[in-house]
Amino acid sequence: xxxxxxxxxxxxxxxxxxxxxxxxxxxxxxxxxxxxxxxxxxxxxxxxxxxxxxxxxxxxxxxxxxxxxxxxxxxxxxxxxxxxxxxxxxxxxxxxxxxxxxxxx
Amino acid sequence: xxxxxxxxxxxxxxxxxxxxxxxxxxxxxxxxxxxxxxxxxxxxxxxxxxxxxxxxxxxxxxxxxxxxxxxxxxxxxxxxxxxxxxxxxxxxxxxxxxxxxxxxxxxxxxxxxxxxxxxxxxxxxxxxxxxxxxxxxxxxxxxxxxxxxxxxxxxxxxxxxxxxxxxxxxxxxxxxxxxxxxxxxxxxxxxxxxxxxxxxxxxxxxxxxxxxxxxxxxxxxxxxxxxxxxxxxxxxxxxxxxxxxxxxxxxxxxxxxxxxxxxxxxxxxxxxxxxxxxxxxxxxxxxxxxxxxxxxxxxxxxxxxxxxxxxxxxxxxxxxxxxxxxxxxxxxxxxxxxxxxxxxxxxxxxxxxxxxxxxxxxxxxxxxxxxxxxxxxxxxxxxxxxxxxxxxxxxxxxxxxxxxxxxxxxxxxxxxxxxxxxxxxxxxxxxxxxxxxxxxxxxxxxxxxxxxxxxxxx
Lengths: 105, 458
Hints:
The complex is a heterodimer of chains A (105) and B (458). Chain A is mostly helical and 105 residues long. Chain A is built from 4 helices and no strands. The longest helix of chain A has 31 residues, at 65-95. Chain B is built from 17 helices and 6 strands. Chain B has helices spanning 3-24, 28-49, 59-78, 84-108, 115-142, 156-176, 182-200, 208-229, 233-257, 261-266, 289-297, 308-312, 316-328, 347-354, 365-371, 390-393, 444-457, and strands at residues 301-306, 332-337, 362-364, 377-381, 412-417, 437-441. In chain B, strand 4, helix 16 and strand 5 form a beta-alpha-beta unit. The N and C termini of chain B lie far apart (78 Å). Chains A and B meet through helix 1, helix 2, helix 3 and helix 4 of A and helix 1, helix 2, helix 3, helix 4 and helix 8 of B.
């Protein structure tokens, strides 16, 4: 049994993906202005919840009791990151207003 | 086309959405859309994963998603903006924990030993464990559940080195010893958890912005390693993006404090407050709200310099109120934001945004320093170290060389402060003794409200 999805993938392909993603990340994120750094962090918390994908595969494969427990725990914490991360980022970004449009208190 | 191919195609779409989402985060006007886009990417990735044939039991998945979703939604709704650093610290920890658990589970089903997979599992578990326990300590320090003071003891470095080497040796055994050894993996997990605690306890509360940025990066790296272990491209891409983001933020924070990362991690800054001899010259000139009113009333340009003290006093709304009155009075009002004002990168901007302060009034340190000499009045609210001219003037000062907002170069400085106590870094502030500085003692919120009342009276 293996829980790998991308069976055709190889080490080199994965390394390629990794290296390119790192460069891309540096390129884009260095352009995020300082005033949006807190939403950037909470947003990246949400993205790091992508481990949910791995957790789902572990928890759903019903491999052994311990694995189901590990997987379910992982699903819980990763979902907290995903749901909490995106919602709080949205809430925060909703507060950023320009000029008088914020008007009332 | 197999299901696996379909899932991987969907992952490409998700990856594109993540990247686009981050790109839209480079501007205020599009940031919210970017966040939504990223969330859609996540949704696609998770839903498509459910199609994989290996997944045969959905019961626990549903339980996990429902429990996690409810907790996450409530946390996001209820958290106060002042508590964002704690929340991000916890979320970093959860990210690390998820990768640790996935790595652990992947190891248990690795029936045929494979060096590459075993190595990446080791990294996922090690980094995940350090991230988790380190983040919990960081959370404790930020939430003041534990003391923000650096905890140092003799032999700390030696003990930490032994722990680290021990973990590497355990990792080596895990990798060389081809039979699957669950006990060895559990040992590594325990060691990594201890290592995480030991790594963060010596770091002072003032340095937590650096630490949570770094742990943010670690949570990405752990996710990336877990992705390599289970050969999942979307985990690799997303993990790398988060890892890169955290490293950039760590760098920004270190620069803003004029410290190297090594110094932050091992320096134990603030454990003992070394005070240079002599101290600042001049005398403190306290004023009352009415005096401050006359100064502000006559000012053409006013710059507020908020620090974390403003947030603690819950004075954001009072500042905004004063800002509007000053504008009606004909003054030009801006806010000068130091990169480490607040407890995490960009924190002050969020706190002011919450109080309805328009974001085009927020000016970054470098931009305000260019025009600071022409400013009539700088009002320092609950900020201390970030406006300390000792960073420019006093060579022996622990903060010497740190970029600060040069409020002392403006015509008049009004400092709103509870008492003469030193700042977070425990350093005396020369600003308070300058010729053009006036001290308005008292709670920041009450002082501001008193000022607003003065304006309304006249």
